[in-house]
Every structure is written in C-alpha cells, then in structure tokens.
Amino acid sequence: MGNTSSSSALQSCLKNVCAGQQNCVAFPTNPVLTYHLEWMKPYNLNKIPTPVAVTRPMTAEQIAGVVKCAVASKVKVQPRSGGHSYGNYGLGGDDGAVVVDLVNFQQFSMDEKYQATIGAGTLLGDVTKKLHENGGRAMAHGTCPQVGIGGHATIGGLGPPSRMWGTSLDHVVDVTVVTAKGDIVKASESENSDLFFALKGAGASFGIITEFRVRTHPEPRNVVEYTYDFTFGKHEDMASTFEVWQTLISDPNLDRRFASQFILHELGAVVLTVFYGTEGEYEATGIPARLPKGGKLAFAMEDWLGSVGHAAEVVGLQAVGGVPIPFYTKTLAFRKEDLIPRSGITELFKHFGKDKGTIIWFTIFDLAGGAVSDVPQDKTAYAHRDKLFFVQSYGVGIPTVSQKTKDWLNGVNTIIRDALPNAPFGAYPGYVEPDLADGQEQYWGANLPRLKDIKKMWDPKDVFHNPQSVPPAK
Fold first, then answer.
1. How many whole angstroms separate alpha carbon 474 and alpha carbon 471?
2. Which residue of 51, 354, 409, 472 has the fewest CB atoms within a 10 Å radius of its CB?
3. The domain at 4-101 falls in which architecture?
4. Which fold is adopted by the domain 108-219+444-458?
C-alpha cells in the first residue's frame, strides 16, 4: 500500500493530473466527514474500506494519468460508476486503493442505426430516460435506477426484459477503455477482441471503460404487470405457493415476454410478474391461470417508462435499494436441471420461519434464461448462460449485521445445496459475496482460466484489483 514518501508522491502526481481542476481529487487528509460522505460514499456500511485517494476525472486522458500515477506508486485502482457494489469494490474492497469515480462521464448520443453512446457514469434511471427521449428506444437492464451502467454492463446486467433481449452486456457493440498501461483503446469483437471478451462480464479486473456504444430496441408499446401479495400464518405455509411458481418458470416453452420474481419477507411473499405485450396476448399464453392462487392481486397496464418505474418501486421496497445501509447477502444460480425438490422446499420454508436476528430481510427468486441463454458460454466472460433463475438473500442490521443474521442467511444456501448435492450452482458477480473463498470460480466458472490468461496479457501487475477480481495467470 506504500509508505509515507510514496503516498506523498502519489498525491503530488494526482494533483498534477488534475492541474488545478476543482473537485478532482480528495485524500484521507481531507476533513473526515467530507471525505467519507461526499467522496467515498460507501454503499454497504457493514464493512467500509478507506481508499488512499478518490478521483473524479473529466476526460479519458485524465483517467489514464490517474492510472499511471497509481502504477508508479504501486497502488491498486478500481473504477466506480454508481457505487452499488455489495462489497464496496468501487472503493477497492480493501484499504489503500485509488478510486476513479466516473460521475463526470455522462455523455449520450444516438446515431442513425439507433446505436447509443453512453458515458460509463450514467445511472440506469438516466439511461432509460435518455433512450426514451431519443427515438423511444430501450435496452435490457436492472430495476434499480441508482445503479451505474459502468459496473452493470460489465458484470452482466439482468432485468425484467432480459428474457426477451439478453443481458445489458449483450447489447454492447464496442467500448472505449483505459488500460493498465494508461493507454486509451477501443475494444470490440474485431478490435482487441480478447479484452472485449473480458470486459463483458469481468470489467473491473481489466480496465476503466469511459463509454459504451450499445444496440437498442424499440420500446414495447404495452406492458402488463401483476403483483400478488400473499400473507400466511407462518412462512412454512408458503412452501406450496413457491412450488407452483417454480413449476411455472421451469416450463421450457415459457413465453420470453414474461418475467417474474418470487419475493419473501418478514410479513409474507410477493409474486411480481411482467409481460411485454397486451392483456389479451398475456391471457393467450396461459400463464395467468398457472400462477399461484390466493394472493391479493394488483393489476396495472403500463407503457415502457411506467413499467420501469413500477418495477423499481416494488423491488426497491423489498430489497437493498439506493440508501446506504449495513447488510449481508448470499446468492446462488440454478440451471433448469436444478429445481429445488419438494423436500428441500419444505426444509427451506421452515428455515424462513426461524429467528433471523433481524426483521429486515428478503429472499428473492429471480427468473432468468430466455435470450440470455442463447449466447454461447464462451462468447463473453459472463458465465451463467445456462442458468434458469437466481436466488438472492439479504439481511440488514443496525448498526451492523449480527452473526446470527449471517448464520441464518448462510443456512438458506446450505439447505438448498444439501437438497441438490450435485448441482454446480455458481454466483452472479453483480451480487458479490466478499466471504466466498472461491469467489472467482463461482462468478466466472469455466471462463476463469481464459480470463486469467487475458489478465496476464493486459494487466500482469494486477493494477485493476479488488478482493475477488481476476488474477493474472501464473
């Protein structure tokens, strides 16, 4: 992490890069509250790393300068877009990193082919708005409007339209990226294709993207949304409701215009469904008749913008939203062959009824598959093309997450693993778990050896590093 003299050299170097620009760089020597609240802005308050500097460059050339300063001082670098990493990896994950905050990279343009150029610091809420205002266009991405596209589209980028259109990173045509040498290069399928492969799924390990060029779709004209609220005497009674949902989403012929989540919380469960089409088209699929019965129904017909906003509202109320809090998470990824058997569901829902050490917890089963699975496993670094659905479990603690809550959350995954002892599972890299000893294998699976080789070529000194980033091949 460097000694006092190297820290001084790093600070001088970064100040020279900023060349007097206001709000360009801050250090721990700045007032503590200012540095913490205005510059660092940690997301998960359960564990907060302290970077040696936070920078806010205005240009790709300045980012290149920041990277060269860090390399000269043998300090690690991490980019931050929206800053929503569950492990605060945008702050380095561990103490001592240089942060490149992309807040100033908000550029946007649309060409005649309806390919959009989007700055890497743009938040998803603004991506939706700008695409709408420039031709009524859209792309697949998640529901949290505060998430930045810089991280989202380099990890995967799953959301309700993904079954229809693929992941966010599947929309990326090319990128402008600053490398570990401080070079500014283009990457696409025809130019620096190995780097492009790595950036589409493991971006934070390989460079700092300043802008994306993405393909877009016409906005769906009609969106049908149903929200079913279920309240039971105890969580154990919800097992059969989940089993009905799992049976529905495992149908190999399930219409790709359909998306759904099964959300458990302290007071009951919510089944959220989205269909991109008319109500008549939705009824014709037969899906409504196959959904779990007995819930309190809320129905809405939306346009595209209304649908995106409603999804953010519903999921934001249930899960970890845009407000910094202390939380702990667990996740698993399921193939279509790995449906939870009835015995496992029974044990799992008994577990949901146990004392968790907190009343603020959520477990979300999230349907995937569809167009996401059309892309070959070795086409991009994203490794979960064969996954049908994911489970994410969250526990919130005040002022910190207790060990009891962590043990309960770990218990969710343990019960599922015991019920499916031969399932390969894996973990979505957008839901990082800092406690995973084999995180790289869980995130990138069979693509990891190739990623290590690419890392050795483009970043042999491991400049772009966090606790679970891709290491260079030995």
1. 9
2. 354
3. 2-Layer Sandwich (3.30)
4. 3.30.465
8 A C-beta contact, residue 105 and residue 122: yes
> Domain 223-433, what architecture?
3-Layer(aba) Sandwich (3.40)
DSSP letter (8 states) at residue 325 = B
pTM: 0.95
Q: What is the pLDDT along the chain (474 residues), one digit of tens a residue?
A: 445 667 899 999 999 999 999 999 999 999 999 999 999 999 999 999 999 999 999 999 999 999 999 999 999 999 999 999 999 999 999 999 999 999 999 999 999 999 999 999 999 999 999 999 999 999 999 999 999 999 999 999 999 999 999 999 999 999 999 999 999 999 999 999 999 999 999 999 999 999 999 999 999 999 999 999 999 889 999 999 999 999 999 999 999 999 999 999 999 999 999 999 999 999 999 999 999 998 887 877 677 777 777 666 665 544 456 689 999 999 999 999 999 999 999 999 999 999 999 999 999 999 999 999 999 999 999 999 999 999 999 999 988 999 999 999 999 999 999 999 999 999 999 999 999 999 999 999 999 999 999 999 999 999 999 999 999 999
Beta bridge partners of 328: 395
Residue 221 class from Cβ within 10 Å (0-12 exposed, 13-18 middle, 19+ buried)?
Answer: exposed
Decide if 108-219+444-458 and 223-433 have a common fold.
Answer: no
| β strands within 140-281, DSSP E | 172-178, 184-188, 208-215, 217-218, 223-230, 258-265, 268-275
